[in-house]
Amino acid sequence: MEAVTFEMAAPHVALVTIQRPEARNSVNGAVATGLDRLVKVIEADPDIWAAILTGAGGVAFCAGADLKVVSAGRMDELYTPDGAFAGFVKHPRQKLWIAAVEGFAMAGGCEIALACDLIVAAEQSVFALPEVSRGLIAAAGGVYRLVRALPRAIALELLATGDRLPARRAAEFGLINRVAPQGQAVAEAIALATRVCANAPIAVRESLQVARQAFDLDDDALFALGLAAQERVMKTEDFAEGPRAFIEKRPAVWKGR
């Protein structure tokens, strides 16, 4: 079986699964190149409006870098030019990505989840960036994305101690969007993605493109980006469909163009 698989889980919703349960879905070269390739496939497919990323087996979403690869001095295998670590954490993406976490999201696995737009986690899942306990830092985005996602004091404590954050507490702090019953993270993520896909896909993508830069730019720059995004949306067929469907009292039929 391939290290990363892809299927359609619902209309317009792709499901990407890391298939290394015997290694807690840790990232090796095959996972990195597989994720990189599938991000490109999904982003290029106009019929896919949202994607879910998960790990097989139910024990771990992803345990981070495969330490056998690291100890063999092959760390470069875990990176791709476009995606950096795991072929994912820095990959340019316009569509909505949801992490569906069952079990451990540790180290690089936590960083992969943080690189997604939304997170759904099963109730017994845990998140951690334990790099400091091994003399490392969470350099695949964790050291800054965790601080953006959590209250500052909580994030700094987790980064400095390497302690684990249970799903319920993570939800209280706003790190994750939904807590699902054990074994139901993917189903809950599909339901959330389906809810997103009820909306105009281009409007969703354009909104996300501005929102993702909220921590990086000042108000004037963000305001200008929002106006430019609105101008692009106004040129689409879906822009006319939304008001028309409202007036005709029927569900909108989005074309994604």
Summarize it.
The chain is α/β, with parallel strands linked by helices and 257 residues long.
Overview of this protein structure:
The chain has 257 residues and is an alpha/beta fold. It folds into two domains: 4-196, 2-enoyl-CoA Hydratase, Chain A, domain 1 (Alpha-Beta Complex); 201-247. Helices cover 40% and strands 19% of the residues. It contains ten helices and twelve strands. The protein has helices spanning 29-44, 67-71, 108-115, 142-149, 152-161, 167-173, 185-196, 201-211, 219-234, 237-247, and strands spanning 4-10, 13-18, 50-55, 60-62, 79-80, 84-85, 96-101, 104-106, 118-122, 126-128, 165-166, 178-180. Strand 2, helix 1 and strand 3 form a beta-alpha-beta unit. Helix 3 crosses helix 4 (142-149), helix 4 (142-149) runs antiparallel to helix 5 and helix 8 runs antiparallel to helix 9. The longest helix is centred in the N-terminal third of the chain and has 16 residues, at 29-44.
Q: What is the first-to-last residue Cα distance?
A: 36 Å
Question: How much β-strand is present in the residues?
Answer: 15-25%
Q: Write the CATH fold name of the largest domain.
A: 2-enoyl-CoA Hydratase, Chain A, domain 1
User: What is the succession of H and E elements?
Assistant: EEHEEHEEEEHEEHHEHEHHHH
Shape, principal axes of CA atoms = globular
- How many DSSP H or I helices? 10
Summarize the biggest pleated sheet.
6 strands, mixed
Describe the strand arrangement of the main beta sheet, using strand numbers: 1-2-3-7-9-12
CATH architecture of the largest domain: Alpha-Beta Complex
Give the class from helix and strand content and strand pairing.
alpha/beta
Provide the CATH superfamily of the largest domain.
2-enoyl-CoA Hydratase, Chain A, domain 1
